[in-house]
Amino acid sequence: MALHEHQLLRHTVKFRPLQVLRTEELTPSMRRVVVGGPALEGFDSPAPDDHVKLFFPNAAGEFVVPTMTEHGPRYPEGQEPSPARDYTPRWWDLEAGELAIDFVLHGDGVASRWASNAKPGDAIAVGGPRGSHITADDFDTYVLIGDETALPAIARWLEQLPEGARAQVYVEVPSAEDRQELPEDERIAVSWLERNWFDAATSTLLEDVFTDFEEPEGDTFYWIATESRRARMMRKYLEGHLGVPKEWIRSKGYWKAHGDEHEGD
């Protein structure tokens, strides 16, 4: 097997009608909603940064989800599609029939409104994941960089950290109260960067990490998830200034500064 060989897995997409089982306030900015039901049977999410698509009731209070075709998803004609947003599954327990999704509470977007008001019995539909990007497990170090929307994926990265590998983690959050418990041992170093409620789209705390950055010894994989423009610029810096091979970087825009809300966790 070649060094640092990534894999892309494709999954059969299923749309699962589920219900809220309970909620948990994680921090002032994040709320966990645990959903479940018989339709969760067979659910799987192999990669730490997988995303599922959450479907919320449309204006008529109905769930109108697409049918997967050879040309992609198709919605029924004459019906208003359900609003949908992408989120990373935090954890799931098929024996208990539970799936946890962590929502950043911000603004007035459809997902934030729903999560803020979610209560046991509320309905939601979940589709996917459609595919999983399995990062090679033979890097010496994994550098994980993200804002609060990336916390569910970062936590999963650390829980699945390959044996013998190290992790350097840089997390930007609105305030000190928004820190969360993350797996941490002698192989893992976590740095919390607090914006103190400065605008997340124009913050440079994550970018400033590279001012005096010392590249880890050995081969290093970089994972970045934050606002779309910021993620793109950090990728360009790693490639152009540090000479990191593009295959050793996975950069994801989890939200857009001018969108109606964050697209993920």
Q: What's the tally of helices?
A: 4
Give the termini separation.
33 Å
Strand line-up of the largest beta sheet: 7-4-10-2-3-9-8
What is the 3D shape?
globular
Main sheet properties: 7 strands, antiparallel
- Please bin the fraction of helical residues: 10-25%
Structural class: mainly beta
Strand content: 35-45%
Question: How are helices and strands ordered from N to C?
Answer: EEEEEEEEEHEEEHEEHEHE
Mean pLDDT: 94
Strand count = 16
Low-confidence stretches: none
Round the Cα radius of gyration to an integer and report it.
19 Å
Domain FAD-binding FR-type: 13-136
Family: Belongs to the SIP oxidoreductase family.
InterPro entries: FAD-bd_FR_type, FNR_nucleotide-bd, Riboflavin_synthase-like_b-brl, SIP_FAD-bd, SIP_fam, SIP_rossman_dom
Protein name: Siderophore-interacting protein
How would you describe this structure to a colleague?
InterPro entries: FAD-bd_FR_type, FNR_nucleotide-bd, Riboflavin_synthase-like_b-brl, SIP_FAD-bd, SIP_fam, SIP_rossman_dom. This is Siderophore-interacting protein. It comes from Stenotrophomonas oahuensis. The chain has 265 residues and is mostly beta strands. The protein has helices at 110-117, 151-159, 205-208, 228-240; strands spanning 7-10, 15-27, 30-36, 52-55, 67-69, 72-74, 84-87, 89-93, 98-104, 123-127, 131-134, 141-147, 166-173, 188-194, 220-227, 249-255. The strands form 4 sheets. The protein has a 7-stranded antiparallel beta sheet. β15, α4 and β16 (249-255) form a beta-alpha-beta unit. The longest helix is centred in the last third of the chain and has 13 residues, at 228-240. The chain starts with 6 loop residues before the first strand and ends in a 10-residue tail after the last strand.
